[in-house]
């Protein structure tokens, strides 16, 4: 039996990877960095409706439990925090920046591994 992902499975994996990337970006680039800078108030925006809903309802998502638990915990360090959904159109600049950073990191990692 061939265990290669096909059609719907690949779509699910792509969707999961994007959701995980959004969660990691929020945890690492927003919450942790802003806490490190000592900012008392924070407004986070994302075009991932599923992630925003899970965070605001404190609802676990399979496979993202650890990331979400970290977000819930870190969020308590702010005097005020707002986590809201915005349209993909309004989030275009952030998406492009994230893709460029990820692409750069993957390129650097591949170069390091080939040496």
Low-pLDDT residue intervals, each spanning 5 or more residues: none
Number of strands: 2
Q: In angstroms, what is the radius of gyration?
A: 16 Å
**Structural class by sheet pairing and helices:** mainly alpha
Tell me about the largest β-sheet.
2 strands, parallel
Q: Beta fraction of the residues?
A: 5-15%
Helical fraction equals 55-70%
Following the backbone from N to C, one meets helices and strands in this order, namely HEHHEH
The helix count comes to 4
Mean pLDDT: 80
Spatial strand arrangement across the major sheet:
1-2
- Taken from the alpha-carbon principal axes, the silhouette is globular
Q: What is the distance, rounded to the nearest whole angstrom, between the alpha carbons of the first and last residues?
A: 36 Å
Entry summary:
Helix 1 (7-36) runs parallel beside helix 3 (65-75). The protein is built from four helices and two strands.
List its traits.
mainly alpha; two-stranded parallel sheet; 4 helices; globular; RNaseH_sf
What does this structure look like?
It is a single chain. This protein has 115 residues and is mainly alpha-helical. It has a domain at 12-85. It has four helices and two strands, in the order H-E-H-H-E-H. The protein has helices spanning 7-36, 49-56, 65-75, 92-113, and strands at 41-46, 80-85. Helix 1 (7-36) runs parallel beside helix 3 (65-75). The longest helix has 30 residues, at 7-36. The mean pLDDT is 80. The chain crosses the membrane at residues 64-86. Pfam families: RVT_3 (PF13456). It comes from Eruca vesicaria subsp. sativa (Garden rocket). Keywords: Membrane, Transmembrane, Transmembrane helix.
């Amino acid at each position: 039996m061939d265990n290669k992902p096909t059609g719907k499975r690949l779509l699910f994996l792509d969707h999961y990877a994007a959701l995980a990337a959004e969660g990691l970006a929020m945890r690492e680039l927003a919450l942790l960095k802003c806490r490190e800078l000592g900012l008392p108030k924070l407004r986070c925006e994302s075009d991932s409706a599923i992630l925003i809903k899970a965070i605001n309802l404190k609802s676990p998502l399979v496979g993202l439990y650890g990331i979400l638990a970290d977000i819930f915990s870190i969020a308590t360090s702010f005097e005020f925090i707002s986590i809201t959904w915005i349209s993909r159109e309004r989030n275009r600049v952030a998406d492009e920046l994230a893709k460029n950073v990820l692409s750069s990191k993957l390129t650097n990692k591949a170069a390091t591994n080939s040496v």
